[in-house]
Every structure is written in C-alpha cells, then in structure tokens.
Amino acid sequence: MNLEQIIKENAGTIVDVRTPAEFMGGNVNDSINIPLQEIQQRLDEIKQLKTPLVLCCASGGRSAMATQFLSAQGIDCVNGGSWLDVNYYQSQTL
C-alpha cells in the first residue's frame, strides 16, 4: 500500500514529529504530535498506535530519521515527508 492509499483509506496513524510549537502552528487533521526527540522514550506508546504509521514533519528530514529508527524497531511505517503534503493527500478524501 502506498502513502496516498494509506492516507485516503485511513489505514494507519499520522504522526507529526515536529516540535509542539510547530504542531500548534498547523497540522494534519487527526494527526498526533510525538516530537522526534521523544520517539525513543515513547516507543511503548507508539507500538500501541494503528499501523502503518505515516510520519511527517516540516520538510521530510526529521520524519525520515523517525522512519528509519521505528522501522529498525519492527514498526510498520512510511515517511510522509512534509505535513503539508500529507494534509493535501488527506484533503483529497473529503
């Protein structure tokens, strides 16, 4: 399943790895905020989320790091890149 399908079919969870301040400035509807620097400490919480996880941030760099780390932990996830791109895909489902 590709990124667009996951988002359009609401098949997983959208996780925004930006800072709380960035997240408050705008985010994808129904996404959750787990800042990149908290990923390791919140691993148990992350494992409880509906997969696949769609990780996003401002440009795709931080979400790429989060994707790499979580994939190594055996968590089904994809790098959604910029939250604006993920938001666009989600807007196509309405």
Order of helices and strands: HEHEHEHEH
Number of separate helices: 5
Approximate helicity band: 25-40%
Strand arrangement in the largest pleated sheet = 2-1-3-4
**Unreliable segments of 5+ consecutive residues:** none
Mean pLDDT: 95
Give a quick account of the main beta sheet: strands, pairing sense, barrel closure.
4 strands, parallel
**First-to-last CA distance:** 20 Å
Helix vs. strand class:
alpha/beta
**Percent of sequence in beta strands:** 15-25%
Write the layout of secondary structure elements.
Layout lengths: L2 H6 L4 E4 L3 H5 L7 E2 L9 H5 L5 E5 L3 H12 L4 E6 H9 L3
Parallel strand pairs: 1-2, 1-3, 3-4
Description:
- The model has no long low-confidence stretch (mean pLDDT 95).
- The chain is 39% helix and 18% strand.
- Strand 3, helix 4 and strand 4 (77-82) form a beta-alpha-beta unit.
- It has helices at 3-8, 20-24, 43-47, 61-72, 83-91; strands at 13-16, 32-33, 53-57, 77-82.
- It is an alpha/beta fold and 94 residues long.
